[in-house]
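Q: Okay, next protein. This is Phosphatidylethanolamine N-methyltransferase family protein from Candidatus Blautia stercoripullorum. I've checked the sequence twice, so it should be correct. Can you predict the 3D structure?
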Amino acid sequence: MNGFFLLLPFLAVRFLLPLVLNPRALARAAYFAPMQGREKTAYYIYQICNITIFFYLFFLKIRPGNSWQFYTGLICYILGLCLCTAAMVNFSFPDETGFNRRGLYRFSRNPMYVAYFICFAGMAFLTRSGILLGLVILFQISAHWIILAEERWCIRKFGTRLDMSMKVG
C-alpha cells in the first residue's frame, strides 16, 4: 500500500476534526506566533520538512511484516493519531481567555507537536525509510524553535498568570 494513505487519517484529524468541532479552532491552530532571529529560519525548515514529508510519502510503500520496524511503526502511528485527536479536541475548546488548560494541555502546552512527531515517526518505521525518519527528526528540531516563539507570545498575551509548572513538550 502507498505510504500516502497514512496521511489521510492524520489530515482528517488535523484539519477536519477542528473544523467540525469549532471552526475558529482551525484558524487558531494555523496561527504561528511572531518569530525572531533563528526562529524564522526554523519556521521555514519546519514548513519545508512538512511539505517534503507529505510528498515523499507518495513514493514510499508501507511494508507490513513480522518485524520490529512494522510493529514499532504501527504502535507509534496509532498512538500519534490518538494523541493528535485528543490534542485537537482539547484545543478546539479553550477557556474564556483563549488559553488551553484541559486534557493533554494540563501536561504539555504543545501536545500537537508531540503527536505529530510520534505519528510521523510511526510513518517512517511503517515505510522503513531512513530518509523519512531523518526528515521527521529535522521537523521536530525545527518545531522546538517555533515552540520558543509560542512560549514568548503566550507570556505576552496571557501574562505571568500562566501556570509555569506546565511542561513544555
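A: Here is a summary of the prediction. The mean pLDDT is 88. The chain has six helices and no strands.
Q: Noted. On to the next one.
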